[in-house]
Task: inverse folding
């Protein structure tokens, strides 16, 4: 039987269908959203970001217009906590639950797999109290509620490394290092936090400004949602292709319906913490699993 997730992706592939369904949903959830915002505003002083209400409005306006916007930075003590967690916990090559390893064993796991590892991800990161605190911070919840126009649900909490490597075309496509857009719900938004410094050699995230609003790419029913650099540059112009760089703690808020991709680091690995909020959730998108499913590769 076709899953709810697949059905959603089929129905919402066209922008007008997404807009229509979202406006209708927002209308139905209007009073719930107002109550959620009022409740969350009452907790604003607990935010680790030290935010004020005006900031939320500015972020949402820029996000709606450009598809992405820099957010308030993650405070340094939190960056250190996330890095400590990442150093001490097993991580999973290719997001494969059976390919666990500790960071210090990266070379050994590459030998075992017979290839360089482009990406390795953690599972069940919400078990960590610091990561949970970031995920449910009033800043994230208020931006998400105002942007989605609905009470936000945390669809996914994700933490992953991208390593300097020479990946196959298959790995680049599988791990989102090719231009694409996501279709994760009727409306959704992601918060990206760099946990390591990211310059042009450390695999910056890339997005195409305005491609959330203006569709200039060919959106066929049959094709997968992947585009070449040339296709995107021709459609939008090079100046719209934005490379996101910054020190550890830098934040990007993005509706990844916007065309985007990861890039492969050439010098230092990149550690990225990401939370995705949406109106509906789908189990396919979760990075939580039963611990018994996890196993070490080395
Ligand atoms: O690694 C990256 O910067 C790309 C991430 C991405 O494609 C996504 O989160 O949707």
Result:
């Amino acid at each position: 039987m076709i899953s709810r997730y697949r059905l959603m992706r089929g129905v919402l592939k066209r922008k007008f269908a997404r807009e229509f369904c979202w406006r209708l949903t927002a209308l139905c959830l209007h009073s719930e959203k107002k109550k959620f915002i009022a409740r969350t505003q009452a907790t604003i002083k607990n935010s680790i970001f030290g935010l004020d209400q005006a900031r939320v409005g500015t972020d949402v306006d820029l996000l709606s217009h450009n598809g992405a916007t820099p957010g308030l930075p993650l405070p340094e003590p939190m960056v250190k906590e996330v890095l400590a967690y990442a150093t001490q916990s097993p991580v999973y090559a290719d997001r494969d639950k059976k390919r666990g390893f500790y960071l210090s064993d990266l070379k050994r796991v590459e030998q075992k797999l017979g290839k360089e590892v482009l990406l390795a991800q953690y599972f069940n990161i919400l078990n960590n109290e610091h990561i949970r605190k970031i995920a449910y911070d009033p800043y994230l919840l208020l931006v998400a509620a105002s942007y989605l126009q609905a009470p936000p649900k945390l669809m996914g909490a994700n933490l992953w490394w991208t390593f300097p490597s020479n990946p196959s075309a298959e790995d680049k496509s599988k791990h989102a290092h090719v231009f694409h857009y996501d279709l994760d719900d009727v409306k959704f938004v992601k918060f990206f936090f760099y946990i390591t410094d990211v310059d042009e050699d450390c695999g910056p995230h890339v997005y195409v400004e305005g491609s959330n609003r203006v569709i200039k790419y060919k959106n066929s029913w049959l094709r997968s949602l992947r585009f070449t650099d040339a296709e995107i540059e021709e459609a939008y112009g090079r100046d719209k292709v934005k490379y996101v760089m910054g020190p550890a703690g830098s934040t990007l808020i993005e509706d990844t319906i916007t065309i985007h991709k990861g890039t492969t680091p050439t010098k230092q690995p990149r550690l990225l913490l990401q939370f995705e909020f949406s109106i509906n959730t789908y189990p396919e998108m979760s990075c939580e699993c039963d611990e018994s499913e996890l196993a070490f590769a080395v």
Summary: The chain has one domain: 4-293. The first strand starts at residue 68 and ends at 71. Residues 94 and 174 are 9 Å apart (CA to CA).
